[in-house]
Amino acid sequence: MDYENETLADDKLRGADAISCFIDEPRGRTYYMLESGLLPAGKIGRTWVASKAVLRAHYARITNSPPQRTERPPRENGANGLAPARRGRPRMR
């Protein structure tokens, strides 16, 4: 579907049932996510409303994998990254 040519009227979802169908979640889970603020939606009176574009962006943000962790360069002062030696009496094993 071509999302760029979507009009403002086509972008709005009215009601928790329409939102649950759009995000493909069970109705009960959708109500929970709406009430707890996990979904970017609001209420007009007693009716939940959401934007399709905002929901798409929200799901794209939360489903992308985190950035890959890069290796740190070695420390220049010769430390190997281990904790310093324990001070005091040695532990009894």
* Major β-sheet strand ordering: 1-3-2
Helix content: 25-40%
Mean pLDDT value: 80
**Number of separate strands:** 3
Low-confidence stretches: none
Topology as H/E string?
HEHHEEH
**Structural class by sheet pairing and helices:** alpha+beta
Distance between the amino and carboxyl termini = 67 Å
Q: Which geometry do the CA atoms define?
A: elongated
The tally of helices reads 4
Major β-sheet annotation: 3 strands, antiparallel
Strand content: 5-15%
Radius of gyration (Å) = 25 Å
3D structure, described in words:
The chain contains four helices and three strands. With about 90 residues, the chain is α+β, with helices and mostly antiparallel strands. It has a domain of about 50 residues. The protein has a three-stranded antiparallel beta sheet. A hairpin with a 2-residue loop joins strand 2 and strand 3. The model has no long low-confidence stretch (mean pLDDT about 80).
